[in-house]
Design goal:
Beta-lactamase; alpha+beta; three-stranded antiparallel sheet
């Protein structure tokens, strides 16, 4: 019995030392990023099986080093919204038999029915970025004059019945602008069915969700997922709901808002749609994002309650068009095809990432990954676009990859 106690005690010390070791290595990676101007601060969460390896806030809101980052502060998730917003909603509609993956998207979004090519693109192809859709339309350029001023046709400084949509403080958008967005998307350039990452279709997903469910996009997500999962601070337009001091500034915007963007979505297309969009718009901290990722890892179940069928999770997180050299799932990003044969530099998201894994990144400096093979959940939140989106050090230093790699090899 005494020998058994010594063995257990020894193993506990080894585990504690290993946990402290990975914490120190990740501290070093993040702090090096801060020193080199990759971001002023960050939140990092890393869990493997039942052990939380890292749950920590680093640095400050901005480089003035005044406000330290807290674990309760919120970051702009950017394109992670495509998964924990749009894809999650489509998964629920699919689960409930309200949408079929191999039907044309135009069946659910009739605006595309008369387009010679887009009318035949399926929901599956579009969610997997296999539709050859143009990656992005800069709608901001459509509402700006050559001198940089905003066109009064679309934008005004005060709300009214004609301009009800708030894009930012003192910026209101015409009620017909959404129709204009859809029209430009329908007329956009289109290539053959090839892998081409595109956020354009995700602008239309909230409309599809509302038509099929009878609820607006934001309410649908809250009622079916966020509220019951305890993800209470996974929010659109948090400036309307929380003290602004709790929201990490995103960028000193010189293109559109001409001020510090804080609490309002950074992505201009999402902003012009009122901050509630399928391509971007959600804000969160690691704690409110975590229940969604645990739901994915647990095959649709969270704390004993089924939110989605296990088969739905499997379908959406599975690679869809491998024969086309397309690594994507439905909404989800996946590891590079043959990732296990690639060098550290060429691998994605990191060496040792199992092909069953999935996740997504965000332009503002955010990332999450779920690795079912090791039961790993990883979240990285930052404002790497502060003070400017020209900041590239997060990519040059491969910070998000380096942390994930530490978690996978631990």
């Amino acid at each position: 019995m005494r020998n058994l106690f010594i063995l257990i005690f020894g193993l506990s010390i080894l585990f504690t030392n290993a946990q402290e070791d990975i914490q120190q290595r990740i501290d070093s990676i993040v702090e090096n990023g801060i020193r080199n101007g990759a971001f002023p601060g960050a939140q990092v969460f890393l869990k493997k099986r039942d052990k939380i390896l890292v749950d920590k806030a680093y640095g400050y809101h901005t480089y003035d080093s005044i406000t330290e980052v807290s674990l309760s502060d919120l970051y702009d998730l950017a394109s992670i919204t495509k998964v924990v917003g749009s894809t999650l909603a489509i998964m629920k509609l699919y689960d409930d038999g309200l949408i079929e993956l191999d039907k044309p998207f135009s069946h659910y979004f009739p605006d595309w029915k008369n387009h010679p090519k887009k009318s035949q693109l399926t929901v599956r192809e579009l969610l997997a970025h296999q539709g050859g859709i143009v990656p992005y339309i800069v709608y901001l350029n459509k509402v700006k004059k050559r001198n940089g001023k905003l066109k009064k046709r679309w934008v005004t400084n005060t709300p009214s019945d004609q301009y009800p949509t708030k894009a930012y403080e003192g910026v209101y958008i015409h009620k017909r602008f959404k129709s204009y967005v859809y029209r430009k998307a329908r007329r956009s350039k289109h290539s053959d069915k090839t892998y081409r990452y595109s956020g354009l279709t995700f602008l239309m997903i909230p409309e599809v969700v509302e038509r099929l469910s009878g609820k607006d996009f934001e309410s649908f997500l809250k009622e079916n997922f966020f509220q019951n999962l305890g993800a209470k601070e996974l929010l659109f337009n948090p400036a309307n709901q929380l003290p602004i001091e709790r929201i990490v500034p995103t960028e000193q915007d010189s293109l559109f808002r001409k001020s510090l963007t804080r609490g309002w979505v950074h992505d201009e297309n999402a902003a012009l749609l009122g901050g509630v969009s399928g391509n971007a718009g959600l804000f969160s901290n690691t704690r409110s994002l975590l229940p969604i990722l645990e739901l994915f890892l647990n095959k649709g179940t969270y704390q004993g309650r089924e939110f989605l069928k296990a088969s739905t999770i499997d379908t959406f997180t599975h690679i869809q068009f491998k024969e086309n050299n397309n690594r994507r799932g439905l909404g989800f990003d996946k590891p590079m095809i043959e990732n296990d044969t690639l060098s550290y530099e060429d691998s994605y998201p990191a060496p040792l990432a199992d092909l069953s894994g999935y996740g997504h990144s965000g332009f503002t400096g955010t990332f999450f990954w779920v690795d079912p093979a090791t039961e790993l959940i990883y979240i990285f939140l930052s404002n790497r676009v502060y003070p400017s989106r020209e900041q590239q050090a997060i990519y040059d230093l491969n910070i998000r990859k380096a942390i994930l790699y530490e978690g996978l090899k631990n």
